[in-house]
């Protein structure tokens, strides 16, 4: 029986992998057609990917958190021949695992590993559930570094991220349960306009749609700004409702948005109720490219970094798509 060539990239320092890495390595060693590479830093991954591109595996398996997945996908786009991109399998080896919740093998690490190894035992058929997603390339950060990711946010997203690091993930909590806790606490803080969470960021925006049409917004205080190429965020959240056809969803809520407590649940579902209007401070777009001008920090798949300020645009461009295999 002919097996596809499979490469597994693992980050042993990611949240879930700290408990499972030894067992994963022992199990993968049983399969002659699987090559397992352990990378403990972005530099190790960067050095590995060109060699993998030359070997042209049929499937690349990324076993890590959202940041590891984003970095690996960016390197694949940088180094692979565009018309010979491999299939990608995502295992939720990190703490939050939002990306894996949308395109991964399963949201639970234990369940994902069980399904993945069962797939290997069946000969690794390539006829499973295949989904296409783009990845966002981000240029214009203060440090000059180009980044990739599938979820980005600022405004209250930053306050929620800092709360997560100090109060939730630092206690060893992870997965969608921890994200649900963070969401509940953050929304409560926003409803009460608690200054720990209610800190709008002044942003000027320009969006370019699939057909080249541009939409601009003057500088305004943004309570929440979130962009993603994922269809589903954690807990089934789908906060984008524009009917335009473009790969990046972008939703903004202005500071002082009216009827926030009544509007926000429908924003999370992507089905706006009568309170969710541009006049009330709620907008959703779809774009192939987004340019933001602001002073502050962003969260890109769990990595925090600073913008270059209001004079230099932070440019988010959709690249891909990549094909993600979810083994049955």
From TrEMBL:
One GO MF term: kinase activity
Keywords, alphabetical: Kinase, Transferase
Ranges for domain DAGKc: 1-97
PROSITE patterns for the chain: DAGK
Coiled-coil boundaries: none
InterPro entries referenced in this protein's UniProt entry, alphabetically: ATP-NAD_kinase_N, Diacylglycerol_kinase_cat_dom, NAD/diacylglycerol_kinase_sf
Protein's name according to its UniProt entry: Diacylglycerol kinase family enzyme
Gene source species: Roseovarius tolerans
């Amino acid at each position: 029986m002919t097996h596809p060539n499979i490469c597994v990239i693992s980050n042993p320092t990611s949240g879930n992998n700290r408990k499972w890495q030894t067992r994963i390595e022992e199990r993968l060693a049983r399969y002659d057609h699987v090559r397992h590479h352990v990378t403990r830093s972005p530099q190790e991954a960067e050095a590995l990917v060109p060699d993998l591109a030359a070997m042209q595996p049929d499937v690349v398996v990324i076993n890590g958190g959202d940041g590891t997945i984003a970095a690996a996908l960016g390197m694949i786009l940088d180094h692979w021949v565009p018309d010979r991109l491999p299939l990608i399998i995502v295992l939720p080896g990190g703490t939050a695992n939002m990306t894996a919740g949308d395109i991964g093998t399963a949201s639970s690490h234990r369940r994902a590993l069980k399904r993945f190894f069962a797939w290997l035992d069946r000969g690794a058929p390539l006829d499973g559930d295949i989904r296409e997603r783009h990845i966002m390339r981000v240029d214009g950060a203060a440090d000059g570094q180009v980044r990739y990711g599938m979820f980005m946010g600022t405004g209250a997203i930053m306050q929620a991220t800092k709360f997560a690091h100090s109060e939730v993930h630092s206690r060893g909590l992870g997965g969608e349960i921890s994200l649900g806790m963070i969401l509940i606490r953050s929304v409560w803080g926003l409803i009460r306009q608690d200054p720990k969470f209610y800190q709008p960021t002044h942003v000027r925006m320009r969006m370019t749609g699939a057909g080249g049409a541009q939409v601009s917004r003057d500088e305004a205080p943004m309570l929440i700004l979130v962009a993603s190429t994922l269809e589903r965020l954690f807990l089934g959240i789908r906060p984008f409702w524009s009917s335009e056809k473009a790969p990046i969803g972008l939703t903004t809520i202005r500071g002082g948005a009216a009827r926030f407590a009544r509007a926000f649940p429908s924003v999370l579902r992507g089905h706006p109720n009568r309170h969710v209007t541009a006049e009330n401070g709620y907008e959703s777009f779809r774009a192939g490219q987004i340019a933001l001008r602001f002073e502050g920090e962003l969260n890109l798949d769990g990595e925090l970094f600073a913008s270059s300020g209001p004079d230099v645009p932070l440019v988010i461009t959709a690249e891909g798509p990549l094909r993600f295999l979810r083994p049955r």
